[in-house]
Amino acid sequence: MNRKRTGFFRELFRSFEGTVGFVILCVMVFCAVFAPLIAPYDPYDITQRSRRLQPPSYEHIFGTDWYGVDIFSQIVYGARTSLTVGALTALGVSVMGGLLGVIAATFGKGIDAVIMRGVDFVMVLPGLPIMIMIMTYLGSSFWTLVFVLIVFGWAGISRVVRAIVLSEKRRGYVEAAICAGASKWYILKRHLLPASYPVLVVNAAFSAAGAMLAEAGLSFLGFSDPRVVSWGKMLSLARTCNALVLGAWWWVVFPGLAIFLASFSIMSLGVAVERILNPKISNRRE
Amino acid sequence: MSFSYLVKRTIQMLVTIVLALTVSFVLIRALPGDPAERFYGDPRIPDEVKQEIKAAFGLDKPVLVQYVIFLKQFFKGDLGVSYTYNRRVVGVVMERLPWTLLLTAVPTILGMIASLRLGVYIGTKRNSFVDRLVRYVAFALHSVPTFWFALLLVLLFSFKLGWFPLQGMIDPTAKGFSSFLSLLRHAFLPWLVIFAVNVPGFAMYVRNMVISILNEEFVLTAKAKGLSDRQIRKKHILRNALGPLFSMLTLRIAGMLGGAVLIETIFSWKGMGLLVLEASRNSDYPLLQATVIITIVSVIVANFLADVLQALFDPRVRYE
Question: Closest Cα of chain A to B177: distance in Å?
């Protein structure tokens, strides 16, 4: 077991995407966990009006905003919001999408048809306006956000899991297991589910990246939890305070860069892991 | 394209629209809060007023009857009255719809043409410098928040260089042809954003199509016949890549019309997206619901059109 794991990391670091993704993500997770130790200023302290709109300097490496709040400290704390939204959404999407895919494939017929029409339906929905409508009704809180992101994210992966389980079911070793008297539940747990793990892992990475971007977009539009700092909310504030007119480019550039790096690192990691778990795919893409 | 395909696809579209309406109906009633209280804007609403409002909107009838009324009214084009505009919401939304279509359709069509050319080029020159560049850019673009990219373009082109107006749609003082020019000047940056964000992804899709087409036997036959590369590219590759490009488009339409909310916010483009936000901010629920429902229906209709176009270009397309 242990040897297998070191082999995985050796392969991960052999690829450029894997190394870059892993390093950036580790830095971000570190920032999120130890935010109070890393952030030099309080990201909620809006009383320091005397130091407002300072360009990047030695004291404030990313500058300050209209309320005199240090941008770098906000970005460090913002990592918490972004990463938790990404992780929770990825988890929710994997569980819900995976389960529905497996259910559709094993039960078949009517249940399968209903779930797959549901997939088709969710895939043609314009997410953002509907999310805005739901958040207007339910109020914008952290959990509402995660909820709507999961509701709009599960469809793609459930279709893939269904296809994998269906094709795996017809493989010789599964039929052999059935002949040997294995129960339906045992086959599902032992053979069919593990076959879809690689795809689930990779899809989780892409879902997390997508969720972070969606969170940023919704926060930018003003649908964010009022109690926490987030990168999207920083950009929203920068817009309402006319940061561009005031020439405060640092207020716009750095939060966006943080969003990009967070999503980019997870996407890269996803691609690298995909290549290790499923070498066929990388050959096809080249 | 066969006639039966068109009929089947039309029925599918209608079923999807009814399904979307059903989900909206259920959703609107499942969400917390009394609709009459929402309409009144104050939970301390007197009882007789509550009854009056409920009667006016048919809320006192059984749910199934309400559902049938809701469907009937939708197909009659009646989705209620906006509180803020004091007009029928459908009228308000329909004034905005063309602007959102103008905002998204123009760069999408131009983007498809450009990515078709680019995709065929990099598909036939695999692993060249341009091919790698497009591949990396397409990958990185997945992680760039579109609204941030738009903000950066505004920072560069409108503030630093002053080439384009900051926001808005048409200079109100302009008349005749100059108002058209003003529209182009205002639309250029948002168009550029949508164009630039879409082209690399589309081009990669075309490229992968082209690579698989190049392995087909008919390409070999064409070469054996002595056709030039240019002729093969035009007659065989382009033609076969066009159909799948439309199916790629169907996957992106929902995201594009939905994502218009962000672009419209940044450029103060008075389309459907800004209307959704405005309705949400003013708690104008009928307007909010109508805008969302009409956006969904627009996506479904656009998907239908893209599928029909694909069937026109690609005779192999069959229903299901």
Answer: 30
Q: Which of residues 237-256 of B touch A (CB under 8 A)?
A: 250-251, 253-255
Q: How far is A35 from chain B (nearest CA, A)?
A: 23
pTM of structure: 0.86
What is the C-alpha separation between B229 and B36, in angstroms, rounded?
Answer: 68
Q: Which of B80, B146, B103 is nearest to B279 (CA)?
A: B80
Residue A222: C-alpha distances to residues A139, A226, A234, B164 (Å): 11, 9, 10, 26
Residue B52 has pLDDT above 50, yes or no: yes
Q: Which residues contact A166 (CB under 8 A, 6 or more apart)?
A: A105
What sign has the CA pseudo-torsion B201, B203, B207, B210?
Answer: positive
Domain span holding position A161: 2-42+61-285
Rounded CA separation B114/B111 (Å): 5
The answer to whether residue B154 neighbours chain A at the CB level (below 8 Å) is: yes
Angstrom CA distances, A178 to A189, A191, B138, B209, B215, stand at 13, 11, 45, 40, 40
Indicate the burial class of A53 (C-beta count within 10 angstroms; 0-12, 13-18, 19 or more): middle
In a domain? residue A47: no
Through-space distance between the first and last CA atoms of chain A, rounded to whole angstroms: 31
* Cβ neighbours, 10 Å, residue B138: 17
Across the interface, whether the CB atoms of A129 and B265 are under 8 A apart is answered no
Whether A121 contacts chain B with CB within 8 A: yes
Model confidence pLDDT, tens digit, residues A10-67: 878 888 888 888 999 999 999 889 888 887 888 877 777 777 777 888 878 788 877 8
Question: Model confidence over B247-256: pLDDT tens digits?
Answer: 778 778 888 8
Check B152 against A134: CB less than 8 A apart. no
How many domains, chain A? 1
Q: Is A52 inside a domain boundary?
A: no
Do residues A106 and A73 make contact, with C-beta atoms less than 8 angstroms apart? no
- The CATH number of whichever domain residue A257 belongs to comes to 1.10.3720.10
How large is the ipTM?
A: 0.86
Give the residue from A165, A40, A173 showing the smallest Cα distance to A107: A165
Q: Would A160 be classed as within a structural domain?
A: yes
Nearest in space to A254 (alpha carbons), one of A110, A69, A88: A69
The amino acid at residue B276 is: V
Tell me if A152 is assigned to some domain. Answer: yes
The rounded distance, in Å, linking the Cα atoms of B106 and B113 is: 11
- Rounded distance between C-alpha atoms, residue A65 and residue B304, angstroms: 47
Q: Shortest CA distance to B280 belongs to which of B298, B261, B259?
A: B261
Pinpoint the alpha helices (H) of chain A. Answer: 2-14, 16-33, 35-38, 71-107, 109-124, 127-138, 142-151, 155-169, 172-179, 184-187, 193-220, 231-240, 249-277, 279-285
- Rounded Cα distance between A131 and A147, Å, is 10
* CA–centroid distance for B27 within its chain: 22
